[in-house]
């Protein structure tokens, strides 16, 4: 059931009407004046750096983790051996996202799930095992802490391990994430702190990094999580910058650090790369231009070292299909290509088994290989912004910017990004898009190869879900008991009291958080402090 | 129970089926859109849908009893044995209430659930077939 070409509505994935070809006059007037800017020059739509991948190949950066901390450590080492050029830790989502220890009733009821989505890390001991023999002083590491309420713990754990190993924190490279989109929009947890408490935590991280970890990217707004939850390309852009404004306004209100440094701290972000290759590549160009505009117009920040947005991309997990999973290797390649064409500093390609489980070792290897083939065999690394100057791409870039600012304005008109999470308005936008997509698949206007069409599969291989290891829960429980038994109890109690006091007052919580990790305070105990101090976010949607 | 309702998407008018479906998530994983989209489609098709989100096995059973449902939909997001526990408790406490499931269900998990009599709709399943299954499992067709 395919619509004849004359009846089909030709649009980009986000719904921008497309012509069958573009001419110079199609490029909007206002956008023509930036066409002559070179990559590495404001407004940066053509790239953050003039020499592009010649001097800075994008970092091959794969999310990884499962089982016990030593299992995750082994997988990270495997990926580095395969050619990964940074590493991303993943903490077990059940425990980490909720700040529960494994003996929490909600976790006990689902003990088989423990370790399926990341290693269980309930104290600094576990984080130390996960980082064993990894060159964290020289390799760009992602400490985990994707989720806002989990980030201070994850970061403090990583930094504590680094400090114990004698590394100078002021030289430590790496990043966390602390992303609202993930659990306030995409996968809403059963329990988490209210959004305003989360803002306080993120601003504390930004301040703390400014003071002690200047090479660390303190927060990384993950448009990816918004987009893979249903936001389309201009919505992803608009919402991401609305989120950045929340951080900058909070830092401005505090007046504790130069705003330009905070802006630099917020200028490492992630986007989703989906299957509309040219819209997605254009989105990255649009993002860089918008950041330059936002900082100049709203905050009078024009330092090019601040206004060149650095971008991490992850290929859309939701585009990886359950049926005929090897087709996903092609999808990963195309989405990775879109990122490369749009200009990225780092990239993760989702596993071909994404719809079935976390990546198997082989799926992970393929994600690295896809990126290596793109970098080494296709010659796309030679020229920066290869799409620049295309009438189509420049038009699409300008149209995305226009629509994204309109969405940004809509968010601001409703009180800002956090207010739109609290009210459920962003969830409605996301759900509406996803519903339309399902309807489009049902009525035949959206075709997915191997799923809605061409479903015959002759592959002799069954791709089954990778289920990690069987002993993650048992070992985590033993280790939790060992920590409780062996730590200096008064030291831990004092650290918890100090952390609680910091949470109740205005002081930056990251110092006390570091002390708490050093004193082997556990994940769940920190969660209990948060819950007592801040209570729960009132979820605006029925899940 | 046959009051007509209007389909939010197509504008078509559907008669209420009088059948009640409980939707629950067995994992602590908060991906909410899959079950929400299925719930919307079922409501559009005239079902009354009760969503309880993330729930432990005993909470699912209690809700199924309290709400006197005709069908239980489980969103599986993790190890299959967590879902199996819910299935076994539903089957022993709610005699004859059929169960269907969706979510992240790799082949081995699908086989395990199917062996217990659960119909499984993995990612990529289309809404019309899910609605059709709900109609069949509740005896409408």
Using brief descriptors, characterize the structure shown:
heterodimer, A: 543 residues, mainly alpha, TIM Barrel, five-stranded parallel beta sheet, four-stranded parallel beta sheet, 23 helices, B: 141 residues, alpha/beta, Rossmann fold, two-stranded antiparallel sheet, 7 strands, 25% strand
Task: Describe what you observe in this structure.
The complex is a heterodimer of chains A (543) and B (141). Chain A is mainly alpha-helical and 543 residues long. Chain A has a single domain, classed as Methylmalonyl-CoA mutase (TIM Barrel), CATH 3.20.20. Chain A has helices at 29-32, 52-55, 69-82, 93-98, 105-108, 124-130, 151-164, 180-186, 195-212, 223-227, 233-254, 259-266, 277-299, 304-307, 327-342, 361-377, 391-413, 417-423, 425-442, 472-486, 489-504, 510-518, 523-534, and strands spanning 59-60, 63-64, 87-89, 141-142, 174-175, 216-217, 268-273, 310-315, 346-348. Chain A is globular and about 75 Å long. The model of chain A has no long low-confidence stretch (mean pLDDT 96). Chain B is α/β, with parallel strands linked by helices. Chain B has a single domain (16-137), classed as Rossmann fold. Helices cover 40% and strands 25% of the residues of chain B. In chain B, α2 (57-66) packs parallel to α3 and α3 (80-93) packs parallel to α4. At the A-B interface, α4 and α19 of A face α1, β4 and α4 of B.
């Amino acid at each position: 059931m395919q619509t004849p070409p004359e009846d089909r509505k030709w649009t980009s994935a986000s719904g921008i009407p497309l012509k069958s070809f573009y001419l110079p006059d199609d490029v909007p007037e206002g956008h023509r004046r930036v066409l002559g800017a070179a990559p590495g020059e404001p407004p940066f739509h053509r790239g953050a750096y003039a020499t592009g991948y010649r001097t800075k190949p994008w970092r091959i950066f794969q999310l990884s983790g499962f089982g016990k901390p030593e299992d995750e450590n082994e997988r990270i080492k495997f990926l580095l051996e395969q050619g990964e050029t940074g590493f991303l830790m993943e903490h077990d989502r059940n425990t980490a996202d909720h700040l529960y220890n494994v003996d929490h009733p909600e976790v006990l009821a689902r003990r088989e799930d423990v370790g399926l989505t990341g290693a269980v890390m309930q104290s600094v001991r576990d984080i130390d095992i996960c980082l064993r023999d990894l060159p964290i002083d020289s390799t760009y590491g992602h400490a985990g802490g994707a989720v806002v309420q989990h980030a201070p713990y994850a970061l403090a754990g990583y930094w504590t391990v680094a400090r114990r190993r004698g590394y100078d924190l002021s030289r430590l490279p790496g990043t966390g994430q602390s992303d609202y989109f993930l659990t306030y929009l995409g996968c809403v947890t059963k329990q988490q702190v209210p959004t305003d408490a989360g803002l306080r935590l993120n601003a504390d991280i930004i301040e703390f990094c400014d003071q002690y970890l200047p090479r660390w990217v303190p927060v990384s707004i993950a448009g990816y999580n918004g987009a893979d939850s249903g936001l389309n390309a201009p919505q992803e852009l608009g919402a991401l910058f609305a989120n950045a404004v929340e951080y900058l306004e909070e830092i401005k209100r505090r007046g504790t650090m130069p705003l330009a440094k905070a802006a630099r701290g917020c200028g490492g972000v992630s986007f989703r790369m989906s299957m509309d290759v040219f819209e997605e590549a254009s989105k990255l160009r649009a993002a860089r231009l918008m950041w330059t505009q936002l900082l100049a117009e709203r905050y009078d920040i024009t330092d090019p070292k601040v206004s060149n947005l650095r971008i991490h991309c992850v290929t859309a997990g939701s585009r990886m299909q359950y049926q005929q999973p090897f087709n996903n290797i092609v999808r990963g390649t195309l989405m990775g290509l879109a990122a490369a064409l749009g200009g990225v500093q780092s990239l993760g390609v989702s596993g071909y088994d994404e719809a079935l489980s976390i990546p198997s070792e082989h799926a992970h290897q393929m994600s690295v290989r896809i990126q290596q083939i793109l970098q080494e065999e296709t010659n796309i690394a030679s020229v920066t912004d290869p799409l620049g100057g295309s009438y189509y791409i420049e038009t699409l870039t300008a149209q995305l910017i226009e629509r994204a600012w309109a969405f940004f304005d809509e968010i601001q008109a409703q009180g800002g990004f956090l207010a739109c999470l609290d009210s459920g308005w962003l969830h409605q936008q996301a759900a509406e898009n996803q519903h339309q997509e399902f309807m489009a698949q049902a009525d035949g206007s959206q075709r997915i190869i191997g799923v809605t069409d061409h479903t015959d599969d002759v592959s002799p291989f069954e791709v089954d879900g990778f289920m990690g290891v069987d002993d993650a829960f048992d070992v985590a429980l033993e280790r939790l008991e060992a920590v409780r038994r062996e730590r200096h109890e008064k030291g831990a109690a004092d650290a918890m009291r100090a952390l609680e006091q910091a949470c109740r007052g205005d002081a930056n919580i990251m110092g006390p958080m570091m002390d708490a990790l050093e004193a082997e305070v556990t994940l769940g105990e920190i969660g209990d402090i948060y819950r007592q101090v801040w209570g729960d976010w009132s979820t605006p949607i029925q899940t | 129970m046959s009051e007509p309702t209007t389909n939010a998407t197509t504008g078509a008018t559907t008669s209420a089926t009088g059948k009640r479906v409980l939707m629950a998530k067995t994992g602590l994983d908060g991906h909410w859109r899959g079950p929400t989209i299925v719930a919307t489609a079922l409501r559009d098709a005239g079902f009354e849908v009760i969503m309880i989100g993330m729930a432990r096995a005993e909470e699912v059973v209690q809700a199924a009893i309290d709400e006197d449902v005709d069908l239980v939909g489980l969103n599986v997001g993790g190890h299959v044995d967590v879902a199996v526990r819910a299935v076994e408790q539903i089957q022993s406490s709610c005699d004859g209430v059929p169960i269907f499931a969706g979510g992240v269900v790799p082949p081995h998990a699908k086989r395990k659930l199917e062996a217990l009599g659960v119909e499984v709709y993995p990612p990529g399943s289309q809404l019309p077939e899910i609605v059709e299954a709900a109609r069949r499992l509740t005896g409408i067709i």
